[in-house]
Design a protein that fits this description.
alpha+beta; six-stranded antiparallel sheet
Length: 498
């Protein structure tokens, strides 16, 4: 791998002060890294297919000259030229530079297969019987070429394959003067099933090969090791920084679907993390891109486990331990809010606890859904978040402010104390509806030994109205620390009984 183009954090972040926006240089480099995703490979496939389908017209001319069939050859060539132009137009719409959304890319993918299948099905119907199978086989070639050239998710490949075969079947049945012979029909069905299986396997295999290639190839600065985790947009690897001689974690954008959406989310995550300076928020060391054009960022390597894993492995936390972890999260989120960043996805999986009691250190990570309070407007978004931790106002479609993070901390504290999530057991959508329509339960219902003060804190955090919650992370943290100090005082008070 050629040397990446690392981009250090802007100078105005060196002193720890939050910057109002990401530097133009970093933004330009991140936005330029849109290669090898769904948009790039689909665009390339469409252009190659356009040229190939037009060139195949030359083969038809030669076949007609050697064995005249009486077909209107000019009409077939005209259709091929029209289809080639259609694919060329679609490739322009799929250009990564246009930042196409996932839905647009999927529509372009399906449209190209529908048109290709329809054309080949019509050609098969109008051709002599001995050539019909060749045209129907062209549908297989179309599907196979897409599997090799387009990097996408398996269901996107399946939609394209089904579109091509459905269009071919409809056009052949509508234009053919006679139905397919039983032998040809059965062989066509076998080919169809094989193509569908190939589409699924090919897409999944390509994604795995791409992931393995990233892992196997090393950059000059970062030597990638084992995979630490993956999400919808990226993969996190353990890495070694050769320049600074230290271990770190590197997250690389790998989302195959919807480059525009994935790049926006990835860029916002980096912007948010560069703004926030707190010992309780994971720190970004470096931003850049690989030689393939994949954006990445290097961050501190956390030696610990996320809170969800700890609770599921060890059971509910002790009261003092849970209050301390929650208070540290509040400190990190307070720094984020001071930098005009709202996390909006606080949950146990996004809190890593390092060290061992009583010297544990909590870190907040994953700012992929972060919102910038000083930025007007923003990207349109649907219902994003995790049931059980999603604030009611966000479930209603509102953007959500600091109060949404207060709700997330309350829901996380409830989980840490009880080992159960809010409205656990219901379907995800039902849970969200109940969060907006019902008061949340208090943790003492599952853990009667908890003092009333803890119930009061959790209930206030989980109030359905944002104004009824703690007014910020500072007051919430002070309430948590006060309860912990009272517990410590009770523990240290000598027993005067007897």
């Amino acid at each position: 791998m050629h040397p990446p183009e690392p981009v250090a954090a802007p100078d105005d972040l060196a002193d720890g002060r939050p910057d109002a926006r990401l530097s133009d240089d970093i933004s330009r480099r991140i936005r330029s890294a849109s290669k090898l995703g769904y948009a790039e490979t689909l665009c390339r496939f469409l252009r190659v297919a356009a040229v190939v389908f037009v060139l195949f017209g030359a083969i038809e001319i030669l076949a007609e000259l050697q064995r005249p069939s009486g077909r209107a050859l000019w009409a077939l060539l005209l259709i091929r030229l029209f289809y080639g132009g259609f694919l060329g137009a679609l490739s322009l719409l799929a250009e990564p530079a246009r930042r196409p959304a996932s839905r647009r890319l999927l529509a372009i993918d399906a449209a190209s297969h529908l048109a290709g299948g329809a054309m080949l099905g019509a050609f098969a119907a109008l051709a002599p019987l001995y050539e019909a199978a060749l045209y129907l086989g062209g549908v297989s070639t179309l599907v196979f070429a897409r599997c090799l050239m387009v990097r996408s998710r398996w269901w996107q490949a399946l939609i394209g394959s089904l579109s091509a075969w459905a269009a071919a079947a409809v056009c052949y049945a509508g234009a053919s003067p006679a139905p397919l012979e039983p032998a040809m029909l059965s062989s066509t069905l076998v080919i169809l099933l094989a193509n569908l299986a190939l589409a699924i396997y090919g897409a999944r295999r390509m994604e795995q090969l791409f992931s393995d290639a990233i892992r196997a190839r090393s950059q000059d600065r970062y030597r990638l090791g084992g995979e630490l985790g993956r999400g919808g947009f990226g993969i996190v690897y353990r890495a070694w920084d050769r320049h600074l001689g230290r271990a770190c974690a590197v997250k690389i954008l790998t989302a195959p679907g919807g480059d525009g959406d994935a790049l926006d989310t990835f860029e916002d995550e980096i912007r948010a993390m560069l703004r926030v300076r707190s010992p309780h928020v994971v720190q970004v060391y470096d931003v850049g891109r690989t030689d393939e054009g994949r954006p990445y960022y290097a961050m501190e390597l956390l030696d610990g486990h996320d809170l969800g894993t700890i609770v599921r492995r060890e059971g509910p936390l002790g009261l003092r331990r849970a209050l301390e972890v929650a208070a540290q999260c509040c400190a990190g989120l307070a720094a984020a809010h001071d930098a005009d960043v709202v996390h909006r996805d606080i949950k146990p999986e996004n809190i890593v606890v390092c060290g061992a009691p009583p010297d544990e250190h909590a870190k907040v990570l994953d700012f992929g859904l972060a919102r910038f309070m000083d930025a007007p407007g923003g990207r349109p978004e649907g219902l994003t978040g995790t049931p059980g931790y999603l604030a009611p106002e966000r479930a209603r479609g509102e953007a959500g402010g600091e109060a949404a993070d207060v709700y997330g901390v309350g829901a996380t504290l409830y989980f840490a104390l009880t080992g159960h999530e809010l409205f656990e057991g219901d379907a995800p959508l039902t849970r969200v509806v109940r969060q907006t329509a019902e008061d949340a339960p208090v943790p003492s219902e599952l853990r009667p030994d908890l003092p009333p003060a803890v119930d009061a804190i959790v209930a206030r955090c989980l109030a359905r109205a944002p104004d009824a919650r703690f007014p910020g992370m500072g007051p919430l943290r002070r309430a948590l620390v006060r309860v912990r100090r009272e517990l410590d005082a009770d523990r240290d008070r000598p027993d005067r009984a007897g």
